[in-house]
Amino acid sequence: MVRPFSYTHVVMSIGSRFMALVHHAHALDPKHPSVLNHLANHYFLQWIPLPGTVSVVRGSAIATTTHDISNDVVHGQLICIGDKYIAYVQDVSSRSITLDVPFKEVSRSGLSISRKLYDQMNTLASNAYHATQVKELRAESCYLIARGHHAEGKYQEAFGYYYNAARSMPSYAMPWYGLAQMYYHQNVLEKAVVYLEKTLKLFPDNTDVLLFLGHVYRRLGRKADAIANFRRVADLDPGNVDALIGTAEILHVSTERHEQLAAISAYVAAQRVLQNAMEPVPDGLHTNFGSLHMRVGQIHEAIECYGLALNQKTNIAAIFDVPAVTEANVTVLYNLALAYEKLGEWRASTGIYKAILETFPWYLDALLRLAVLERDVGNADKATTLLDQALAQDPTCATACLLQANMHFAKREWSLAQKKYEAVLGMKQPDGGMAMKNDPYTFLSMGNIFMSNIGEKGRYVKNMTLSETYYKKTLSGHAQNVYAANGIGIMLAEKGQFDKAKLVFAQVREAAPDMPDAWINLGHIHMAEHRFGEAIQLYQVSLAKHYKGQDVSVLLYLAKAYYEAKRYSECITALTKGIHMAPQELKLWYNLALAQEDFAVATLGETSASVAKSSRTMADVQRAISDLQRAQRIYAFLDVAVPAETSSKKAHQIEMDKVRDHAKFCHETLEKASVHLEFERQREEKRKADAENRRRMVMMLEDEQQAQLVAQKEREAALELKRAQMLKATQERLKAASEAWKQKEADHASKTVKKSSKKRKADVSDDEDDEEDDVVGAIPAAAASSPPPAKKPKATDDLFGSESEHEDDERETIHGTNVSPPREMDDKQHAELFGSDSDDD
């Protein structure tokens, strides 16, 4: 059974057969230009193994060899260590090779070493060039020679051969790519773009051309075109790490958050591709990834990436075991310290900065950050010493000088701060230039100094003019500087042009929503216009949005607005919060005492007429007395806390004479407070008595209403009972009447039967009488007209009349007149049957 070959074996087999045929052709015709070009291209791609092996250490540029190869390699030659690590030789000895860059992969030993035979390749291509007059073959020979020189770093010679190849055959695209590389190396990027775009027209899906053109676009600032090229490469070759990293690096520097998140996604994709391919992830990728996480605020993820770059796990508990600081990891360690500083882990960041300075005392960035940390924890003297060390190492370090100036500015040492800022403006660079002459930050700081000194006696107009001048200088060089625009708004507000100042501050707030200065200054303008509600709202928004409620200055502004709005309780709350944050600020204590004093006076100082109508209570008076007592204690504390030699207003912004006057006023007011307390006590007793009387009257009314309600319910119940009894009696009478009626109907039926039999007998008798009349003669008229005697009602007649219909008919038709029946029922009987119609019932 034949064992199937893999694709690699097949390709290698075909390549070997091809080269065998080329060598055979070269043996037949050693001067054939096409054969010579094929052999030159083969030697360009072929790595020739050198004897022995090498050992390399990660981070070191020295590779130890087991054999002497000093005769095989020379300075500037390209070598390959292992399978794919390529570097240039800087120096060679009998037992070692110095590389141009430190070894970046894992430390290993027993690696193979190989080199290129560029000399032999150049000889073959040159022979091919001279052996033919065909321009296509000559162009190919020039291109191969140019590639050799290019690989050896001989860019001038390479440029000439690339140019000759392109001139010999204008439609030959390969030299165009080489010329683009040469122009890129010469920093002539526009010409590089021209040749790359020409090449791309012939090979629109070539990933190498697309990738290279993307990098050139990036250098030219054509961000959209560069990203489009990188994404095109990623579509054609999803595993192309260079395209993913190129996209991430472009988006890395963006200030837009969505682009920064897209850069993170690109880095993650590149890392996944490398891991799937079992390739080591470069430390630079981890470092850039961590830096990007820092920019978007993902500090913990940044620390994790820096730990991967350092090949160790980093966490808060273990970071104090700082690894050995080397040139390879010093930048990563510095970034890691910045990340811990962002988290507030100053102990960890301080340890890293000190470790860096122990190994590299000249590392100014670590020295400056250490000075900033010392300044932030209150060690101003130590911070100043560190900044002096930085200036001693580098007198042109503007950052150190600016930090010192800012420290003087914070302590209101205007003259010292001004000297430092002027020193920055006059700093000379090693080449003799004045790089900081027009520094916008320094101009802005100088404007702030003169603006802060605007109240100095006799210098109001001059300081206003100087401040405005520096702000305009800043804007002339940087028109988008929102801080300078904010300064111009302050100048307009100081001149009383509030409408123009509002417009400037509104524009600054729109341009920089995260800048709190515009919000606060708008609040100041509303305060000047006595629109305290709007000022309070602006201060609250700024405090919550920009400072998370933790800025003492903004709390002081907010307390001032509450104070002017007579909202003393909220003013006291704001000042108390500020004191909890900065108990060393004496002005907070003074303002708190003043607010408590005025709150108490506003409560106790009401006139008798207003007190009688107000809602003031004894609890309010008691609180006012407590506030006065607290204010008195604070004034006493300030009298002791402020030393006599520094008790001027300039030192602590507190006039001690006023403090003593307020303390005296509190003492006098407390002596008179008993009158108010007694008055409120009496009012409280009277209010309680009135309330008790009202409560009793209400209870009496409620009892009366309850009694009436009970009586009403009892009457309704009695009436309901009587109606039920009457209904029951009526039903019983109706039942009895119904039974009697049925009995009488039965009797009536029997009587009717008897009467019918008698009537038949009577009819027979009448017939006999008629016969007799016919015989005897007619009866006289007088006798016929006399009525018969009336019939008496029988005892068996019903209550409703006679039971005989025949008898009723006879009574109604005697002599043609109607005779009313006698009234059989009286009213008493009707009432017994149907109930009385009386209103009483």
From TrEMBL:
Residues 765-775 have a biased composition (Acidic residues). InterPro entries: Ctr9, TPR-like_helical_dom_sf, TPR_rpt. Residues 751-761 have a biased composition (Basic residues). The keyword Magnesium does not apply. It holds the Pfam family TPR_19. One of its GO terms (biological process) is transcription elongation by RNA polymerase II. This is Uncharacterized protein.
